[in-house]
Design a protein that fits this description.
Layout lengths: L3 H8 L4 E3 L13 E3 L12 H13 L4 E4 L11 H15 L5 E5 L5 H13 L4 E4 L8 H14 L4 E3 L12 H8 L3 E4 L9 E4 L10
Parallel strand pairs: 2-3, 3-4, 4-5, 5-6
Antiparallel strand pairs: 1-6, 7-8
Helix pairs in contact: 1-5, 2-3, 4-5
Length: 208
């Protein structure tokens, strides 16, 4: 079982924004809403309604939209369904103000890279990935995010919620561990530069 320090060294804490050698096309700060996955009465994904969520989010003046993640019931989506949804959202988001972030998580490295390649081809604003569910060691986590980092051409968020349960930690404990500490994370990739996060700013928001 990895220690908290080892876990943080692997994937950092919370959702981290990897700083690349280029800027995102839109500001990646503010309110980012996880989009719901709508269904028809026949229990098929309603891609028309999914795309319509973009217009609603734009009218609500949110800064970003994320799909699919846990709240989107991503585990119920097929590979083809996920690709179809990405394409529908990318088309609907053209010319809209909110940034679009696609979840490219997979059970393992190969699956995640498959989603990431399709997402990159759609020229969105950023990527995010839930940890792998098939991870069997801390090294599996390292390789999973390294592999995604190597092919990512835009900012990439690391999500610590979900994934292999034996390696998950309560977020509160993660913040307690990293508060008032500067966390330096390095992911082995030509595309990813050194990431530095100062969690001192979190101190006022931590509960005893």
């Amino acid at each position: 079982m990895p220690t908290r320090r080892q876990f943080l060294g692997c994937v950092a804490a919370g959702s981290l924004h990897a700083r690349f050698g280029f800027a995102a096309s839109k500001p990646l700060r503010g309110i980012f809403i996880i989009l719901a996955t709508p269904y028809t009465e026949d229990k098929a994904v309603d891609y028309e309604d999914l795309a319509a969520e973009v217009g609603f989010m734009d009218r609500c003046a949110v800064q970003g939209m994320v799909w699919p993640q846990m709240a989107s019931e991503y585990t119920r989506l097929t590979r083809e369904g996920c690709f179809h949804g990405m394409e529908a959202l990318a088309k609907a988001a053209k010319g809209r103000r909110p940034a679009l972030v696609f979840g490219v998580q997979g059970a393992n490295v190969e699956a995640a890279l498959d989603y990431a390649r399709r997402a990159e081809a759609l020229e969105l604003d950023a990527l995010i990935a839930i940890p792998p569910t098939e991870a069997r060691s801390l090294n599996d986590f390292h390789e999973y995010y390294r592999a995604l980092g190597r092919i990512a051409k835009r900012p990439f968020f690391i999500q610590t919620t979900g994934g292999a349960r034996q390696y998950m930690m309560k977020r509160r404990r993660v913040f307690e561990t990293t508060a008032s500490r500067q966390l330096d994370v390095r992911l082995s990739s030509d595309a990813i530069q050194e990431i530095e996060f100062n969690f001192e700013a979190l101190r006022p928001y931590l509960r005893a």
